[in-house]
Amino acid sequence: YQRRVRGITLVQQYTHKMSWQSYVDTNLVGTGLVSVAAIVGHDGSVWASSNGFKVSADEAKKLLAGFADPGPLRASGLFINGEKYLVLKADDRSIYGKKGTGGVVTVKTAQSILVGLYNEKIQPGQCANVVEKLADYLIESGY
Fold it and tell me: Taking the CB of the first residue and of the last residue of the chain, which one, N or C, has fewer CB atoms within 10 A?
């Protein structure tokens, strides 16, 4: 089943249990505008992630806290997959970071945090657009 949301085609596969991995593989990385991605719960549990890409429970906890109070992330950086990113934008919905020619886009939904990384071949705005639009869809769906 496919659905268009604000210009992006979202693919949803119906199985007995919702497949979060398909959102990572198809709707984030599959666009070609996100290098690797993960979806983590507010409790720090990893719901789905790209192969070899890990968001630790501690990283997720600090990231979640950063949506309420971005001060500590701005001061010491955002750590994702063991890498430090300089925080460029932080508010109660989105936190963006940069490292070298790549960066990270994170968006909080009602129950999860979407994390998407981009490399030097991807424009930051393209990655942000994809991650933000999937977040819009999940928020509209109650996740």
Answer: N
